[in-house]
Structure prediction request, 442 residues.
Amino acid sequence: MTQRKRILFAISDTGGGHRSGAEALQAALKLHPLGDSFEYSTIDLITATGLPLLRSAPGLYDQLSTRWLPLFDLLYQLTNGRRRIDTLAQIAYVSAQRSIRRTLESYKPDIVVSVHPLTNRFIGHSRIAYNMQFRFITVVTDLVSLHTAWGDLDADLCVAPTHEGHDVLLAQGMPAAKVVYAGFPVHPKFTACTLTEAVARAALGVDVKRATVLLTAGGVGSGRLKELVIALHSAYPELQLLVVTGRNAALRTELQRIDLARHVHVYGFVDNMEVLMAASDTVVTKAGPGTLMEALVMRRPVIITEAVGMQEHGNIDFVVNRGLGAYAPAVAQIIEAVGSLMDPAVHADTIARLGDSVPRDGASRIADIIIDQLHVSPPLPTKKPRMPAILNRRHEPKETPTRRVPNLSMSLLERLREHGGLTINWRRRPRKKNRRGNRSGE
Prediction:
């Protein structure tokens, strides 16, 4: 009996988009004629490292992307460079290599599919250091503003979600032979959903004839959503609103207590987003790539309200420059943008541009690539495993001069404190006087 091929998805639960991408690819693979011949697993490889900060990455990300956003952007800038991210990853790998090796070996994968930028170097280092025999590809789940961590030279292939992302990867130094454009991994249920607006609204039990707007703020909900719902309902009393608060149960309860019309419907966390989008004329959301691409795949105009972190700013240009919707960071601007898209002519023109804006079958295209890679032999083992440079320093010639890493400057620490809302006071320590010099002067 032929052994089933094992596919391991490496993610981190820093936001919901990476796990959603892995789930979309797994669903697409299962729809493939060969889908039943594979075994599937998903691992949060960042948490599995066991390192103090990395094992708390999901909770830390939630804080950084909300309360400490300036600090998040600062860290993004400080690490966004190939040499910088390579060095940081190697330093972390020194402490985490045993945990990473143990984790990967426990799954015995034939291919590892990374859908998170910070897992890439760990996978590549382990495969080389321990001669692990598996294929390794990365599937980029950001759209345009790609951190250099996405492009790992040790990967066999890197799948870009957009033409713009493809060009960025090449500009960052990825070999052209290792980069392929295939689209974004949107769950196949969005592609398969062919419900008309009327049928989708009937399935949801909402008014079939009213103009409808879907408002979503991601898995954790948004503090501005309540204000926006009230303002939109006041500006357009006849407009039907479908409001998704995600896992923010308190926000859902608050909205349900407000005296709003019956055609304002409030939902919590949902698993039928494709039906909600099919029922809507327009989608109002933040610039997160997951929900944004789901809406575009459903050919719905989008109004972007905010970008969380520097990696999402390119998503705004992606939508606006192609005429697929609008960017409206203020409530008054959102109201104006919704009103504009309620014009039948404007709405029809936007829908026409959406027709060929993004591939609808990105997940199935990537699934085909994964299966093709499974038929390619993994890299041949080397006689002597090549260790990452930072692990191999003891083998360097003695005459090789060592380079000191400069200490963080006081100005940088001050920026971390001010932008991050930290309570630590960074104080200069007085330099110790040279005792030998002091004694000689006595």
The chain has two domains: 5-186+362-390, 191-354.
